């Protein structure tokens, strides 16, 4: 009985994760194409998608690699893009923190934007789910998403070798990032953070080794946090 | 790209381990403890703080045109941003930006 409800929780998770293959597939494809165009071989492109599984940070690293930025700056920038996942980890801990260590390690590897969004929505509306079902549900969400992510990256990498450079793929990364940022501009604080980020990075573009990028990101985070405080003060 | 294979793999593996540790942080190490409010308040803005800084110079001074501002790429950037804000849909925004880029390169080029 217990195992059959655990199994059904797994398949429920898989079903709820299903629509997100239409989100991750084009991204995987695009990363494969752009990565190969930038000069990575297939193993390197796949290394990114399998070891990192975080599209935005992969594109960020790739862009800085084509600019020949120093390794330290590349890692700091790409990891900064992923810092939001510490928030995901913290918010899932009350639900999944009692699972065995190896399961928590596996969950951490599979903790992507989509599995977090689907998982936390379910756990918050069904807080009484037993741990085994929550764990099964979480792993269910990624059973389709992650294989699609890997496979579409591979197809993109294979296709990328056939695409000649005159297709202006240099601009695929900026367009992708703008497309990711635009829907995230939900509040005045997000808009302020983005505006400070743009202004400081352009003002500090002369700083060697993309050093201005880190300063711009820190200034923008503080701007976002400050504006959030002001807005809350005005509401109160 | 002008990087050795060792350098590329250092970045891939370093980013992989670092990202895993970020994901594992609370689930595996810190456990059920609340993040201080001021930390959460800054973390909320990391994507909109990092990504615009990364691309703003690429939009204004594209490498493909030798760093000269380029109308087609500016229009494409505006289209991607505009479609994204109006539709809140990432894929539509990419399609809008790419379509604008190719149309503008064709008409202006």
From TrEMBL, chain A:
<feature type="transmembrane region" description="Helical">
    <location>
        <begin position="45"/>
        <end position="65"/>
    </location>
</feature>
<dbReference type="Pfam" id="PF03591">
    <property type="entry name" value="AzlC"/>
</dbReference>
<feature type="transmembrane region" description="Helical">
    <location>
        <begin position="72"/>
        <end position="90"/>
    </location>
</feature>
<dbReference type="InterPro" id="IPR011606">
    <property type="entry name" value="Brnchd-chn_aa_trnsp_permease"/>
</dbReference>
<protein>
    <submittedName>
        <fullName>Putative branched-subunit amino acid permease</fullName>
    </submittedName>
</protein>
<feature type="transmembrane region" description="Helical">
    <location>
        <begin position="135"/>
        <end position="159"/>
    </location>
</feature>
<dbReference type="GO" id="GO:0005886">
    <property type="term" value="C:plasma membrane"/>
</dbReference>
<keyword id="KW-0472">Membrane</keyword>
<feature type="transmembrane region" description="Helical">
    <location>
        <begin position="12"/>
        <end position="33"/>
    </location>
</feature>
<feature type="transmembrane region" description="Helical">
    <location>
        <begin position="213"/>
        <end position="231"/>
    </location>
</feature>
<keyword id="KW-0813">Transport</keyword>
<keyword id="KW-1003">Cell membrane</keyword>
<dbReference type="GO" id="GO:1903785">
    <property type="term" value="P:L-valine transmembrane transport"/>
</dbReference>
<keyword id="KW-1133">Transmembrane helix</keyword>
<comment type="similarity">
    <text>Belongs to the AzlC family.</text>
</comment>
<keyword id="KW-0812">Transmembrane</keyword>
């Amino acid at each position: 009985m217990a195992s059959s409800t655990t199994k059904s929780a797994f398949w429920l998770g898989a079903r709820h994760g299903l629509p997100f293959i239409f989100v991750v597939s084009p991204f995987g494809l695009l990363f494969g194409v752009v990565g190969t165009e930038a000069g990575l071989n297939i193993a390197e492109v796949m290394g990114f998608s399998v070891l990192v599984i975080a599209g935005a940070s992969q594109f960020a690293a790739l862009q800085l690699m084509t600019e020949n930025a120093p390794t330290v700056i590349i890692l700091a920038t790409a990891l900064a893009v992923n810092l939001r996942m510490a928030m995901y980890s913290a918010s899932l801990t009350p639900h999944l923190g009692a699972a065995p260590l190896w399961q928590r390690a596996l969950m951490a590897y599979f903790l992507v934007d989509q599995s977090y969004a689907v998982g936390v929505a379910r756990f918050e509306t069904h807080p009484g789910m037993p741990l085994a079902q929550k764990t099964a549900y979480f792993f269910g969400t990624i059973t389709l998403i992650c294989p699609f992510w890997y496979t579409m990256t591979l197809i993109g990498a294979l296709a990328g070798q056939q695409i000649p450079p005159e297709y202006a793929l240099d601009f695929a990364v900026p367009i992708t990032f703008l497309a990711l940022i635009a829907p995230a501009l939900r509040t005045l604080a997000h808009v302020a953070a983005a505006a400070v980020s743009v202004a400081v990075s352009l003002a500090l573009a002369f700083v060697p080794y993309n050093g201005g990028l880190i300063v711009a990101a820190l200034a923008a985070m503080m701007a976002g946090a400050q504006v959030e405080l002001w807005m809350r003060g005005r509401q109160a | 790209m002008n990087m050795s294979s060792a350098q590329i793999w250092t970045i891939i593996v370093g980013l992989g381990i670092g990202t895993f540790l970020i994901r594992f942080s609370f689930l595996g190490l810190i456990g059920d403890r609340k993040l201080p409010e001021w930390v959460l308040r800054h973390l909320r803005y990391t994507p909109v703080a990092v990504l615009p800084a990364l691309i703003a110079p690429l939009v204004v001074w594209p490498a493909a045109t030798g760093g000269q501002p380029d109308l087609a790429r500016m229009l494409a950037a505006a289209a991607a941003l505009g479609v994204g804000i109006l539709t809140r849909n990432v894929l539509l925004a990419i399609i809008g930006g790419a379509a604008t880029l190719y149309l503008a390169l064709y008409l202006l080029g």
